[in-house]
Design a protein that fits this description.
This protein is α+β, with helices and mostly antiparallel strands. The chain has 10 helices and 37 strands. The longest helix has 22 residues, at about 5-25.
Length: about 650
Amino acid sequence: MTKETIHTLAALALLAAAAQASADAGAMRSYRGLAMSAGGERIATIETVEGEKTPARVTVRETASGKVAATYDSAGCAECRLDAPAWSPDGKSIALIGSDAKAGTASVLVLRDGKLRTVATLKGVANTVRWSPDGRQLALLATVGAKKLTGAVEAGARQVGEIGVAQEEDEQRIAIVPAAGGELRMVSPGDTFVYEYDWTPDGKGFVVTSAKGNGDNNWWIATLGHVDAASGRLRVLAAPKMQMNMPHVSPDGRTVAFIGGLMSDFGSVGGDVFTVPLAGGEPVDVTPGYKGSFTGISWRGQTLLASVLAGADTGIAAIDPAARSATMLWKAPVSASASRDGRFVFSADGKAAASIIEDYEQGPRIVAGRLGELAPITRDNQGFAPQVKAQSISWTSEGFNVQGWLVGPRTVDAGKKYPMIVQVHGGPASAVTPRYVAGEGGNGLVRELVGKGYFVFFPNPRGSYGQGLAFSSANKRDFGGGDWRDILAGVDAVVRQAPVDNARLGLIGHSYGGFMTMWGVTHSQRFKAAVASAGVANWISYYGQNGIDQWMVPFFGATMYDDPAIYRAASPIESIKSARTPTLVMVGERDVECPPAQSQEFWHGLKAQGVPTALVIYEDEGHAIRKPEHVRDQRERSLAWFDKYLK
């Protein structure tokens, strides 16, 4: 036995002891960025233990047993965040991105022969490392000299001075570096923001979704294209009037598959699966009429293996593009996560799969096995008891089948009625799926609400994923119409089935959910307290204030300048004189998606009507509230607000 092996075994023993101690102390283990080796025999994840102040750690496990084979941390950079790992084609190496926010750098890292080494470093931000088919090169998405973190939910760069003149945009580009190390070479055009990419099977280029100009704003007009690795030339393959995610080329190099539909946020994926020739052409829907939303795809031969949300279930489907059919192989009422290509990862032969799953009553665990036979292989969180009781609620509304989740106390008193909070998800193109309700980092607001005796209802009204393209597109030009009626019908369904006090209802939401909260309190007296986070009060003024106005055209059918009436009709501020519900309003100071001026306008309107209200603006925060102290403050204020008016 070598000295290195002895050290490795000793380290593993210490880590195992630490993990057991953490479990005994009530600390939850989390997993993200799941990757499976080509042969399917091993998986890799980024694992952390709640409250543990150690560098980010990559854990390699045996797929069959879940046994830890090796662990690696970002030694020398305790604050670094590790991006999702990627296995080399030969299964001997793992590549990933390490980001050091303090230094403002991102590094390409490779794990091989038990050692972690840096292959390349850039000043800026980076993500999505992928091996070339021959394993000799690594590609990644890089933003050199980035002015902000990538994505519209991140805090926006401050707008000062003369705006829009000689102002360089952050452009995320494909970069290539030899796997053995060397200089990064920027490949894709310098004036184009690349959202997603994948190598072509011959290793000579990439299939991409991209758009020129501002990356936060222009995803909604992105095209599908091919980038030549040698010259960097971009050739457009298709420009459909839809949003596209996860482009991948078939193994024979002839066909590109992607997920397409009406989507409101980059990264929130749901739609049908489309194919188009790599030579270019008109995309074809190969899953027409499917009663579910596809959330990830991977080619395996001439078949596409896909993750899908269908009603209350997350599952794996096999798609035959030629027959335009899909067959469900595995499903369960859980949330699932894995990689940037979907909620599940697969072996090269498509016979094995793995995912990280959780539900409201059971903590995160990794499941793996042959398709259709997935079973838990980790038990780190097995000792955590359920904190809540959850059930799927289904109802019909104006011809649609609608689904949602009801979460409440484990036991209730006979004959007693409980207050209920209705939480509307963001998007609108999104869906609520079960997340474990645990400590500080696990659905903290829900945990505390239920602990105080509330039920919490999560509806997935029209416009949500999970019921097919027709359903997810049904709120187009109808914000606050059918979607709101679906929610009210869902509340009626809950009141009929659960011990909920119809006279003590609260309403809460963030982003689109914040808008729906503002809409709800100006169109109903049913709710006795509300919390609107990062909402939209006035679609007319919002159009000129936000940093992502391109998203609005697919949903409203025209720009605000061409059809102001539809924007005005959907604006809660137009009905502000009907508001009676005490409403707490919160927003991030540098929110690009839902600027604080919208929250201020609504708060001002409520004050003018004499409605109890408060406004909180969180310093330096974007659309996603990140700082732990602000997350806690939001939760505490929301709890106090509901207690004041509903208890």
